[in-house]
Amino acid sequence: MSLFGASVLLLLGFIYHSTAGFMERQTDETINAEIRGLTEQYAQLGLTGLVRAIETRVARDKNGGALYLLTDWKFSPVAGNLKEWPEFSSTQDGWVDLVLQEADGEVVSSRFKYFSLPGNYHLLVGRNVAERNTVEDLIMDALVWGLVITVAMGGLGALLMTRGMLGRLDVINRASREIMQGDLTQRIPAKGAGDEFDQLTANLNAMLDRIVGLMDGVRQVSDNIAHDLRGPLNRIRGRLELSLRGHEDTNGLRPVLERTIADIDEVLAAFHAILTISQAEAGSRREEFSDLDLAVLARDVAELYEPLAEEKDIRLNVDLTPGLTVPGNRHLLSQALANLLDNAIKYTPEGGEVGVTLTRGDSGPELAVYDTGPGVPVEHRAAVLKRFFRMESSRNTPGSGLGLSLVAAVAKLHAAGLTLEDRSPGLRVLLSFHA
Length: 435
What we know:
This protein is α+β, with helices and mostly antiparallel strands.
């Protein structure tokens, strides 16, 4: 906008300078022509012929635009329509600009040229430039208004163009935010103008389609692996259990078989978690939603973990506000809360404290699980929500790194916020539902 205004100002300045300069040159050429004619008259006819020529020109000039004064060596008037020789200190090549006051009191802007004649006579020829100045003022006013109107129209056009561009960028930004929040089905709408924005939109949508295709392929492969391996592992587990029940432990293999069964159970739990996460992320469990009383659900899950907490001498606090309901999948929410309690009890040292709270927040129910364990560093809080991520300090503890991933997927399915907070000591995981 500044560059546009400067360009318009430069253009209008050039127009004014060219127009005013042309009018000034025209005035100077007229005066020079007058002087040449009068000096020729003086050279041919002498003083008498010069006086007659001046008087003739004064008589012909009905508008009073031409100004003449012929004086002797004392600057006493001899001929012309000026009463006296004007005062001026110096001239540039004989040229001088003066403001004269006529007999009726009117002030007149004039431009003169001074010329000396043989015989010590002085000739002053000029033009009344008041009309020219008026025209220049009109041109200046027109150019100023032209500048104002041009800048105003340019600013309005720039505003409309900017609003149009920002509007289209805002559409792209809104769609991008929804995509970044996990809605990969969202696409950027095209305006249909066929311009660069539509080309960008088409490229971005094609890129999103490609990304979704790749992600679906990876998810499908992992789901197929988990699904296909669950059957053989279940059969292996069944045979091992039959072996334990049907034969005496003559060779001391029972501990080995029991550890093998435990390992198989851990692998099966990981496969089950992968399939559950995939279903939650795909939104395929929304048809099972119903109105759930979160206090009842949380109390049922907490009762399941009371024996485990007592076994580690951990105090389990339950503080639930009754009557808070949300639409949701009972099985998935129970699994998510169970994962949070399992992690809290697992990482809390003996004699510690684990708690489940349900309160009414500003936007809806808030379900939280806290502990007095080592907590999660701030730099790892985003990573622990990803699949198979485990902090180095927890590598020696059982688990697959899918617990919090499942919680994140269930929270996303229920449009709930998931926040990991420092409790000093310990960690507080908050699920914020929208009423």
